[in-house]
Amino acid sequence: SQACQLRVKGTNIQENEYVKMGAYHTIELEPNRQFTLAKKQWDSVVLERIEQACDPAWSADLAAVVMQEGLAHVCLVTPSMTLTRAKIEVNIPRKRRGNCSQHDRALERFYEQVMQAIQRHLNFEVVKCVLVASPGFVREQFCDY
């Protein structure tokens, strides 16, 4: 479909068997079709724009942290896809009667790892909103942390 194509127009600067030199030509680029882009000299501004265009993180202004006790996914949400940037798994022991210290320490370690993943994988110059979602009170406990 045309929604997944990029049309590039220009003048042919090297003659080949299909297109004469100087003739206008259009090529359609689409996913999973390889192409080579060449230029004698690239300036830093153009290289940065190409790098940003190839990295979906530059267009993701929404992040989501989807979690349950001991498991969290840090995701970037773009208009066309959701990318999982980090998966955090920490074994959380059950609460024992009279002794919750192991459980509490494990939760603290889990929340710390989630925060580190958020700081490492989210660019807050681009991301405008972080959605935190979970069943039960995990979200509230994490936000309090």
UniProtKB/TrEMBL annotation:
Boundaries of every Pelota N-terminal domain copy: 2-54
Record-level GO cellular component terms: cytoplasm
InterPro entries: eFR1_2_sf (IPR042226), eRF1_2 (IPR005141), Pelota/DOM34_N (IPR038069), Pelota_N (IPR058547), TF_pelota (IPR004405)
Record GO biological process: nonfunctional rRNA decay; nuclear-transcribed mRNA catabolic process, no-go decay; nuclear-transcribed mRNA catabolic process, non-stop decay; ribosome disassembly; RNA surveillance
Pfam families given in the database record: eRF1_2, Pelota_N
eRF1 domain span: 62-145
Origin superkingdom: Eukaryota
Signal peptide coordinates: none
Stated name of the protein: Uncharacterized protein
